[in-house]
Design a protein that fits this description.
28% strand, Rossmann fold, single chain
Amino acid sequence: MKKIDIFLQRERIKTTIPYIQNGMSVLDIGCSNGELFELYREKDIEISGIGLDPDIESDIIKKNYQLIKDSFPSSKVSGTFDVITALAVLEHISDEKIDEFIYSCKKHLKANGKVIITVPHPFVDTILKVLIFLKIIDGMEAEQHHGFDIQRVAGLFEKCGFNLLKHKRFQFGMNNLFVFSGKY
């Protein structure tokens, strides 16, 4: 990853800070190399959990977390978590699998838990193509984007039994943060 890829990734992770506190368990879907867990460690916020990513080389076990080479939903994940994150993930999921993804989030979420999602504005796909062409960014799996409509996010999660707690734009309006809680 290039420096700008890392910067953008860290900015997405930083949006989770108001919602993840010391001692919480986290399921980080699309974890890359565990950057979310490491950023929290740098900030002296102790969290534990599991990161899932089909693109890591192999499973990794660290002191407070483990990374598993797999996609979500995963048979390798059991139990429930205080928080589930999927940062820059939803736009990679096909329409045929989106409901299964959301219902699996509900299955792995503790009562009063939160799901934190970031989704780029569809216009970002055009910007990514230009930046990748100019070799300014690597654009992790940008070819998988399918112009996902951010207007659908709240409805998809509410249909599956979630409440929208927060929606805000960040990164000059090019990215969106959604925070949901389950209805219990």
